[in-house]
Input
Amino acid sequence: MSIDTLDPARFRAITRWGDLAKVMDGIRAATEAGLSVKINMVALKGVNEHEIVQMLEWCHGNGYDLTLIETMPLGEIEEDRTDQYLPLSLVRANLAERLTLETFLQDRRPARYVRIAETGGRLGFITPMTHNFCESCNRVRVTCTGMLYMCLGQDDSADLRAALRASESDELLYNAIDEAIGRKPKGHDFIIDRRTRPGGIPPHERDGRLTWRRLPSPAPLARVPSTAPVRASLRSRLPRDWREPWSGSGRSASQASP
Output
């Protein structure tokens, strides 16, 4: 769940429409259903940086993991939030002065986790700007319209719905996935600076914090690992009704759940 603040008025201002009470009702329902809950918080300088410790205490007090995220140059917004960029390296250093941060073996997730000795809970840091995780990224995104995006920082994509409709077998779909994963870039193009004003945005991500400028796409990976696990995972998530023409639009599955 994405919650950048525990203050209802500030939550509505950040989200531009959100109702914190409804979000809390959803978290309680998920907890009562026995689901594991993880809270994502985008750290915004001058907006919610003073709430990070409070959020940490609330999350760990309720048994939730907390992941802090650096604001990324994504999203179609009218304002420029360059001044709100807060490096998590500074946040981590400040927290280390007040709490005991214990590191442990990391897996291939984008977040780097520590354990807070005083609470026993986990705290993650997603740092696409100060220390990107591109070298270990194993993530792709499938939208509700069947577009496969290999990187949030690139707009390159593959149309999986077209492959599904073109054949009753899965061969074309597997070929499309293999070809797309082969184009997965070495890194993203996120840049935050004052020299570039708002420009284009990735079409698959419209709820971010900043706009971004596009640089030449990095070269693809020199050695592409086996795509069999990716194909199996994606195939299990694709609805069969994509074989039928449909022109709707909506949020991607990854936007619906953090």
